[in-house]
Amino acid sequence: MTTTETAGTAGARAAPAWRGGFGRLWTAAVVSRFGDSLRTAALPLLAASLTDDPLLIASVTACGFLPWLLFGLLGGAVADRVDQRRAMWAVDLLRGALMAGFAAAVALGHASLPLLLAVTFALTTLQTLFDNAATALLPALVPAGTLAGANARLMTGQQLAGGLLAAPLVPLLLLAGPAVPYAADAATYVLAALLIASLRVPAPARPPRPAGSTLRAETAEGIAALRADRDLRGLCVATTLCNIGVGVLIATLVVHVTDGLGAGEAGYAASVTAYAAGAVAGGFAARRLARRTGRIRAILLAGAAQTGCLVLLGAVPTLAVTIAALAVFGLLGTVWNVHQTTLMQERAPEGMLGRVAAAFRTLAVAGTPLGAVLGGAVAAGAGPHAPAFLAAALFALAVASLRPLIN
After folding, report:
1. How far is residue 333 from each of residues 233, 241, 275, 323, 372, measured CA to CA in Å?
2. Residue 10 has what pLDDT?
3. Residue 302 pLDDT > 90, yes or no?
4. What is the DSSP string of 213-276?
5. Using CA atoms, how far apart are residues 276 and 49, in angstroms rounded to an integer?
6. Quick check: 126 and 91 in contact, CB under 8 A?
7. What pLDDT sits at residue 11?
8. With bands split at pLDDT 50, 70 and 90, how would you rate the model's confidence at 393?
9. pTM of the model
10. Which DSSP symbol is given to 1?
11. Are 286 and 338 in contact, with CB atoms under 8 Å apart?
12. Rounded Cα gap, residues 81 and 93, in angstroms
């Protein structure tokens, strides 16, 4: 058993206390995810009302990935330089102001596609700093042995708020007015900012930076630290392969369900809901699995089982199998994400967690749009069920790349 697995098994035994700041951070994260999900569910509908060009509509989603590729590494370097708590509440206040202005524009009938693209790009750019700072802040709020439990509770709450509660509310909110989902999102940002600002966390103690140190040089240090850690490097490669597979699945799932299965919009909604429900359940399963196997093995087992779900999805094209496979796939995805994040927090060098997380995320996020393009091409050339097999092959490669880490 590797050192990582020994530490991971011990760390899987404890759950964090809600007091001491974690409860407020959890509430802020869940409230913010709820608002984000309202916005992301409503934006494509607004885009479709402004244009019937599929490429232009898809470009709104693409703007949610592009800033990670352009600024993700920079966001990590900044997160390691500043007080993460202050950076997070300041970013949320700014995002709240942006969304309030956008809601006002929609309410007054001034929405346009360029405005949608600009707002989406700006929000995701700010998110690169927020997410990296949040990853670096969590270890200061909970004991080291409870990191896995803390990550599991955070992800479970976010999946519950975003995947199961927010999306069904969007049609009701839109009945009250086209700007209501965006105004609600603005309010959640402000509430999250107030909760984070109330945390009493001492400013991180960092050694003085060398004279002449630049953000570029510090970013390179984060990349070098990721490359130097065998487990994190291997996990980053595996996660990138999986994200390509996830991109394949996300881009073609609606075609698989509505055209391939003939299940229509109701079938697609049931499939997406099953995935979200499984992801919530995964938060409860993550620590239990790692307690028995260690963190790396838990990730490997989750990836292997997800591969089977994808094969089943393509080989048995029925709605019942699709719903069941996606529920299990979502559960195992949360298991993977919980222990991936925890390993980063445990193994990143002191004072470099923001940069290591940024390097990891930037490469991993790049896989999703690449997978979406591949999935669309495969679906067009080989039929609506073929992308599931491509996704399964990518997950199998990811699992194979992890296998040396447990020797």
Report:
1. 19, 13, 10, 15, 18
2. 41
3. yes
4. --HHHHHHHHHHHHHH-HHHHHHHHHHHHHHHHHHHHHHHHHHIIIIIS--HHHHHHHHHHHHH
5. 27
6. yes
7. 42
8. very high
9. 0.84
10. -
11. yes
12. 20
Please enumerate in sequence order all residues whose Cβ is within 8 A of that of 354, keeping only pairs 6 or more positions apart, or say none: 75, 76, 77, 78, 79, 80, 84, 132, 133, 135, 136, 222
In whole angstroms, what is the distance from residue 144 CA to residue 368 CA? 31
Lookup: tokens for 274: 């099953």
Average pLDDT, the chain: 88
Contact by Cβ (8 Å): 186, 316: no
Please check whether residue 278 is in contact with residue 326, taking contact to mean a CB–CB distance below 8 angstroms. yes
Give the model's pLDDT for residue 4: 41
Q: Which two tokens stand for residue 91?
A: 């970013």
Residue in the block written with tokens 């009938």: 109
Rounded CA-CA distance 238/397 in Å is 8
The answer, yes or no, to whether residue 8 has pLDDT greater than 60, is no
- 123 and 98 in contact (C-beta within 8 Å)? yes
Report pLDDT digits (tens) over 161-208.
988 888 788 888 989 999 999 999 999 999 999 999 999 877 665 666
Structure token pair of residue 395: 């997950």
Q: pLDDT band for 101, please (50, 70, 90 cuts).
A: very high
Structure tokens at 101: 């202005």
For residue 226, give both structure tokens. Answer: 């990721």
Task: Give residue for tokens 């969007």.
Answer: 170
SS3 content of the chain, % helix, strand, coil (to 5): 85, 0, 15
Widest CA span of the chain, in angstroms?
Answer: 64
Q: Which of 74, 10, 8, 15 has the alpha carbon at shortest distance from 231? A: 8
Poorest-confidence range of 51-65, 129-143, 334-348?
Answer: 51-65
Which whole-number Å values give the CA distances from 239 to 43, 46, 329, 393, 394, in the listed order? 28, 32, 15, 14, 10
Q: What percent of the chain has pLDDT over 90?
A: 50
